[in-house]
């Protein structure tokens, strides 16, 4: 129900600016809101499809590397995190969603994003990571 209300709020032209794009995106793709964490989400954190345990593994690695200015291509991240298309604990789609959420919040610097999506060093589906958020991409199933 909470997911539905959040999406409805974003899709309504009169209330669309009440919620940040990154926040709505995380709810939409069923990602634990690790960058918006707080008491508000404590009662629902176990219901997200991409759980806190996955986000912690990826996020902690990204932060440590970013702090020392060690940037990676998407394929390098996959290799380091032992990501596989759909067979491993961390899936490619999880990595894409976590990175897009971080991008929408405006985390990391331009150099990080440029290296991540270096030509020929990422799958085509990863191109969405730095694309503009558009409410027309939201739909109810």
Kindly describe this structure:
- With 141 residues, the protein is an all-alpha fold.
- The chain has one domain (2-137).
- 48% of the residues lie in helices and 0% in strands.
- It has seven helices and no strands.
- The protein has helices spanning 2-11, 21-28, 39-42, 52-67, 74-81, 92-105, 110-116.
- Helix 1 (2-11) crosses helix 2 and helix 2 (21-28) runs antiparallel to helix 6 (92-105).
- It is globular and about 40 Å long.
- The two termini are 14 Å apart.
Largest beta-sheet characterization: none
List the total number of helices: 7
Query: In percent terms, what proportion of residues is strand?
Result: under 5%
Distance between the termini: 14 Å
Low-confidence spans = none
- Kindly provide the radius of gyration, computed on alpha-carbon positions and rounded to a whole number of angstroms: 15 Å
Could you tell me the mean pLDDT? 90
In the residues, how many domains can be counted? 1
What class, by secondary structure content? mainly alpha
Q: What letter string, H or E per element, gives the SSE order?
A: HHHHHHH
Q: Give the tally of β-strands.
A: 0
Helix coverage percent: 40-55%
Give the overall shape.
globular
Assembly state of the chains shown: single chain
Fold topology:
Blueprint: H1 2-11, H2 21-28, H3 39-42, H4 52-67, H5 74-81, H6 92-105, H7 110-116
Features:
mainly alpha, 141 residues
Characterize this entry briefly:
This protein is mainly α and 141 residues long. The protein has helices at residues 2-11, 21-28, 39-42, 52-67, 74-81, 92-105, 110-116.
